[in-house]
Amino acid sequence: MSQVKKMEELNSQEKITIFNIPIGWFLVILSITLFAMYTGNLPAGMVGAILLMMVLGEFFGWVGDKTPILRSYLGGGAILSIFGSAFMIHMNIMPKETAGMITDFMQTGGFLNFYIAGLITGSILGIDSKILVKAGSRFAIPLLASVTTAITLGGLAGFIFGDGFIKTILVIVLPIMGGGMGIGGVPLSQLYSDVLGNDPSYYISLLVPAIAIGNLFAIVIASILNAIGKKHPHLTGNGVMMPGLHVESKEPTYNISQMGVGLISGLLILVISQMLGEFIPLHPFALMIILLAILKISGILPKMIVDGASAWYQFVVKNWTFALLVGIGITFTDLNVIIHALTLKYVIIVGTVVIGATLGAGFIGKLVGFYPIEAAITTGLGMANMGGTGDVSVLAAAKRMELMPFCQISSTLGAALILFLAGIFVNLL
């Protein structure tokens, strides 16, 4: 009898997998990877970076998605991948050489743009063209509601705590809603410098904590919205923006030829968008969305390109999401900044801004025909997170990666709205 139990336990252990690899073998892979890192034998460049990011990401993702409270309410594997890797940097657990290699791979090597290009191309070309027409035409309404609610509630919270209504809007609300550092924080700091004086770096130091903590709130709230959607199915389309409109559902396909076509298509569209950016004053991702929407609605693309983009999208999401989140944690998440800003007053104000943006987007989104949870994620949290990296983190926590095009609209085009409002508010100070 005991022999039977031992066999059952052995079979049970064999069924536990990480990244579809039996857990025992995966731990061997993890151990070898970490040994190579600590002995200085991890190859430089793409080889070492991708190996470490994938192995750490899948490990953190598995632990986070198996931990009950973390899984249900705090972002699960997504948030553990980000903050687990950031903690390794903060505590000097990861060698500086390795952290530098991954940072170079993410930024100079362009892995983030590489990932997002595949995501945007595949997700837009995989959407029913009716969604792009009907949802896109009314998307601005909940986005404006999100910004209005965030400014009103955030400003009032700052006023109550004695920080001033306008000052709180400038230093906390607008950087949170501005689309991250590159298209939000940096232009805002320059604008403030031009009007108020002081060096832009002075304002950057004021804006970074709001952007970082706001992004954390956005990830956690995304996970909570996913849990709410499971308990109240009528509030969500499970990744579909509007009732009656459905994403073209396909079984995952990993045809090698298709994925090659999808890879080239995504990169080519990104390159074309960057060239257009020389003449059109919009972020390349915003131009990508517009260009892809036109191509999809017109129906001029051959089926092989559409199917290829969808296949590559599935591969990227399946294999590299947790890896990218590790890169985000190492490259863009400074725990020192977050820890130093963690006063109760500051956290309450930031939380009020992000919750206000979420509620405003969800409520008004429902009134114009969107599912409230999808509207809250895309036009609320899509504005409140840290741009492209935040979009990936939020959608991973919400388990709705197919909403990437809508989040990118909020992050990129919404950033222009925030800069316009900043020009108004800074002159009121």
Present the secondary structure layout.
Elements: H1 2-15, E1 17-18, E2 21-22, H2 23-38, H3 46-66, H4 68-73, H5 76-90, H6 96-106, H7 111-125, H8 129-138, H9 140-160, H10 165-176, H11 181-196, H12 200-231, H13 256-276, H14 284-298, H15 303-332, H16 335-340, H17 344-367, H18 372-384, H19 387-398, H20 404-425
Antiparallel strand pairs: 1-2
Helix pairs in contact: 2-3, 3-5, 3-6, 3-15, 5-15, 5-19, 6-15, 7-13, 7-14, 7-15, 9-10, 9-17, 9-18, 10-12, 10-20, 11-12, 11-20, 12-17, 12-18, 12-19, 13-14, 13-15, 15-19, 17-18, 18-19, 18-20, 19-20
Short description:
The protein is mainly alpha-helical. The chain has helices at 2-15, 23-38, 46-66, 68-73, 76-90, 96-106, 111-125, 129-138, 140-160, 165-176, 181-196, 200-231, 256-276, 284-298, 303-332, 335-340, 344-367, 372-384, 387-398, 404-425, and strands spanning 17-18, 21-22.
